[in-house]
Amino acid sequence: MEIPFQAVEDLGGPLANSEALKSVGRLLLLALSVLCTCRLILGSLDRKFRRSVQARIAAIVAGILILTLTAHYLAFRVAKLPLPMSRTGIFFLPLCTLLIAVVAASPAESPLSRLLGHAIAGVFLCLAAHYLLCLRYTYFREYEKAADLKGVYRVIERLNRTYGIQDFTADGAYRSPLNFYRAISKTDKFPPLPGYPGMVPAGKEVYILHGAYYRAFMDEHKLVVVYRGRISQVVVAVPPDGPVPPLPVAP
To answer: Model-level pTM?
Structure first.
């Protein structure tokens, strides 16, 4: 049985943005750090661990991490180069994963050390399942503000088809993506969304705005939200006495 993509998207959206899952992830990372620290402390007292190949690999990887962090910090202090963050620091993940895996797989004489190794492996599996549930596959984190614009474009297409609206006014952050969707849809039923310097003008038929940023503007002109993004702050709003009825519109 084929699962519709929209059904998968409806499942992934709330999970990827669940605060409960994010809290679980932080707890799992904390537990992993504590377990690895305890395993290394016990390993330093364990002759079998100190003589193993895994211990030498762990020392090499830890040295690479320390040297990398030191080099980046010096570059930041001396040359004012920004520190790695988000995707620019993603190389830390495989290094840390390798270090933790080597520590978990290292041999041990004491039952407590072996138990800690099994616990690290168990938390690792739970963390992998957590990341799978939090997987975002429709947008990058840096472009979260545009995560709902595909649905927004469906809404303005519906408004154009149902009410003949051709004048859509969008915030500058949304104009280019919406014009991109218009271009790939090859429609000529309404013109490209225009750009405006500064705030959007009043007196338009349909607005695509950032709900929080334009809250005062929306209150001043009594705009009614007919569509609200599930992930981002984007809204489609209309005046109460305009050609579009102030009723919810589905994408």
So the answer is: 0.64
User: Which of helix, strand or coil describes residue 236?
Assistant: strand
Can you tell me the distance from the alpha carbon of 227 to that of 59, in angstroms, rounded to the nearest whole number? 55
How distant, in Å, are the alpha carbons of 53, 73, 95, 203 from that of 67? Answer: 21, 10, 12, 59
Q: Any residues with CB less than 8 A from the CB of 224 and at least 6 apart, and which?
A: 237, 238, 239, 240, 246
- Look at residues 143, 151, 120, 131 and name the one whose alpha carbon lies nearest to residue 31: 120
Contact (Cβ atoms closer than 8 angstroms) between residue 202 and residue 172 = no
Chain centroid offset of residue 229 CA: 15
| C-alpha distances in Å from residue 50, one per residue of 40, 100, 102, 114, 216 | 10, 16, 13, 14, 65
Do the strands 168-170 and 206-210 form a parallel or antiparallel pair, or are they unpaired?
parallel
Residues linked to residue 106 through DSSP beta bridges, in sequence order:
none
User: pLDDT digit string (tens) for 215-236?
Assistant: 999 999 999 999 999 888 999 9
Are β-strands 234-238 and 206-210 bridged in parallel, bridged antiparallel, or unpaired? antiparallel
Of 127, 128, 130, 149, give the one whose Cα is nearest residue 138.
149
Task: Using CB atoms within 10 Å of the CB of residue 212, give its burial: 0 to 12 exposed, 13 to 18 middle, 19+ buried.
Answer: exposed
Tell me, rounded to whole angstroms, the distance of Cα 28 from its chain centroid: 19
Give the tens place of pLDDT for each residue, 28-63.
999 999 999 999 888 888 888 888 898 899 999 999
